[in-house]
Design a protein that fits this description.
The protein is an alpha/beta fold. The chain has 3 domains: about 100 residues, no CATH class; about 130 residues; about 140 residues, 3-Layer(aba) Sandwich (Glutaredoxin). It is built from 16 helices and 11 strands. The strands form 2 sheets. An 8-stranded mixed sheet has the order 4-6-5-9-8-7-10-11, covered by helices on one side. It has a 3-stranded antiparallel sheet with strand order 1-3-2, with no helix packed on it. The protein is globular, with a radius of gyration of 23 Å. The two termini are about 20 Å apart. InterPro entries: Thioredoxin-like_sf. It comes from Undibacterium nitidum.
Length: about 425
Amino acid sequence: MRSQLKILSFFLVPLLLVFSTISGAQVIDRAPPAQLTESNTTTQVLRNFTDLEQMLAQGPNPLDQLTPYSREKILRNVEWRDGQVIRFDFAVPIEELERDQAFQVYKLFGVERFFPQNFPIGAPLRYENVSPDYASLTESLRKSLDQDTAREKDENSTAVWRETESFYRTQLSALLQPSTLASTSKGNLLLLFKIVDEVNLMTASSRAFSDLKRLHLVLNQRGIDTRRSLDERLLKHMLVQRDLDAARALVASRPHLSNVAIPKLNEEGHFKTSDLSLMVEKRGQLYRQPMPTVKGKIQVLLLVSENCGFCRKLFADLERDRQLYARFSEAHMILISSLENGLPMNFVRAWNEKNPSLPMYMPGKDEQWKTIDAGGWPQFVFLKNGKVQELLYGWRNDGSSKNAIFSAIEKAGL
């Protein structure tokens, strides 16, 4: 049975723009500290759609610096409430423009407080000559992902990414053939990379991962600078897929990634095909080992993400509420860093130094993890003999989540 504390929508605050999605637009749910000081030049701030329409009618404006495709993407995805932008495609100006140009666009919409302090290097990624048939692919992908996400809520669903896989097979496969890529325009090629990147992000598909690596190679062969976010996107997927040899080779070939250390992965213990595996760090090296199981007994996994605001609230409650901490520890709850975090060794190390009785692990490369870690954190997974018995999501501020998880733990006999 699938239970829910509450299905909570969450949005990444735009601090890691290199991993933005096809929809791109992000809801602003909190403001980070001010990160940038610019000259006090007078710039119009758009407060609603009327202001936007008037600016567009008056002639040249900062949005003209964008390509037509990206300009339309910005206009399509912006929303206001009470004179403040609540939805904005943060990644577009960062990808397409030079630093000062991008800041002008942020300032135009009154979101300059979100401007990245460390602006990415590399030439801007210009989405030039994007054809209508390629542009329509983004909407087709979005519809497929939405259908699959809706189906995932059905506890009887067994093919979570059925529509997305069909989209990939019927609409993308032919476009990814080497003979087709050779004549694909730069803008269409960049859009293909973003679409395949999105499929990877959502499904961790091995096929899409192989295609993404091939697209990255084609971009470089065409002389397109991939330092403006594309190298980092590929690296993240390599870490998620646990393709550490490829990640090490990419880092070695990219001076701007030279500060990224990719540890060696060692095997430890005897594995069965059905075993879930965990990764632990020892003296700077990673070791993959079978997850300990107790036959016939229920185990509770707590999946968390380093970038999840609800997880940070749970962490704060665990630090403040000793009863909560003790109950999790008594239940031998196993904390798992989400696959989407890649290899967050510093995050896991810092947690374990502070919480030795409630250790956190990184998941190994297993098909089972892709099924269990399907997004939405924190996620409480009740397992028995390797099979999911119950799922609970979210962490509310009103204390009801604590009561719900306590009841579930007691029901499980832990």
